[in-house]
Amino acid sequence: MRVAVIGGTGDFGLALARRLAEAGDHVIVGSRDAERARAKAAEAGAADGRTNADAVGGVDIVVLAVNAEAALPTAAELSGAIGETPVLSVASELRFTKSGVHPTRDVRSIAERTQELLRAPVAAGLHSLAAASLAGGKAEGDALVCADDAHVKDLALELAAKVVTGRALDAGPLSSARALEGMTAVIVNLNRRYKGHAGIRVTGL
Ligand SMILES: NC(=O)c1ccc[n+]([C@@H]2O[C@H](COP(=O)([O-])OP(=O)(O)OC[C@H]3O[C@@H](n4cnc5c(N)ncnc54)[C@H](OP(=O)(O)O)[C@@H]3O)[C@@H](O)[C@H]2O)c1
Fold first, then answer.
1. pTM for this structure?
2. Collapsing DSSP states into helix, strand and coil, what is residue 84?
3. How are beta strands 87-89 and 122-125 bridged, if at all?
4. Alpha-helical segments (H) within the chain
5. Which among 17, 110, 122, 154 is placed 20 to 30 Å from 176, CA to CA?
6. 129 CB less than 6 Å from ligand 1?
7. pLDDT for 107-152, tens place per residue?
8. Ligand 1, closest atom to CA 66?
9. Is the C-alpha dihedral spanning 72, 73, 74, 80 positive or negative?
10. 90 lines ligand 1 (CB under 6 A)
11. What is the DSSP string of 134-145?
12. How many C-beta atoms lie closer than 10 Å to residue 143's C-beta?
């Protein structure tokens, strides 16, 4: 699979790029800075590093893994370059307060709002995979993926299955991204309380 990881220079994107390259995928690391992209691509064992706009050309799937606040502006900026190439959104908006970590106030997920900006079909997933866990090897547990479009969902499930010890599971339509993104706040609260890197394992299936 040919994969562009936009924001592949960050904690999560770099760990994902490393795991996918290890699994044999042709991975392009994207960054706003081509030099940084090339350096991080070499670190991850990826095929190449390019500017975000150059990274999305000729790939099977684009993983939008920039800092969550930058996800929507970046999707809008890359809309033309991405065209109809399937996109996987991994972003979760979090609000940090004294009482704990909260999900965004916006009812709609970042993934649904990303879909409104792109012609490409959007999937959402991998939210429960901590960068710190992924950095050391496959992340413990299952990965949940959702999408309205069957093709992007299949690609995202195939990608997810390569980076977890458990299963890649179909969590339904793109609106499920509201729950998946919200779950990140739950996981961060668990990590803070129990000092760990929580993952998710679904039982009963
Ligand atoms: N960290 C986790 O454990 C984790 C787990 C699951 C999902 N996620 C999601 O994965 C995504 C990345 O998380 P992260 O922790 O790796 O984030 P991060 O390290 O803060 O940022 C990732 C990359 O985003 C780019 N970036 C930062 N500000 C930007 C801006 N204003 N415009 C465009 N690009 C910008 C930077 O790349 P350049 O400067 O090279 O362009 C940076 O290396 C987030 O959406 C997060 O919600 C994270």
1. 0.98
2. coil
3. parallel
4. 11-22, 34-44, 52-55, 71-82, 110-117, 131-136, 150-161, 177-194
5. 17
6. yes
7. 899 999 999 999 999 999 999 999 999 999 999 999 999 999 999 9
8. 24
9. positive
10. yes
11. HHHSSBSSBEEE
12. 28
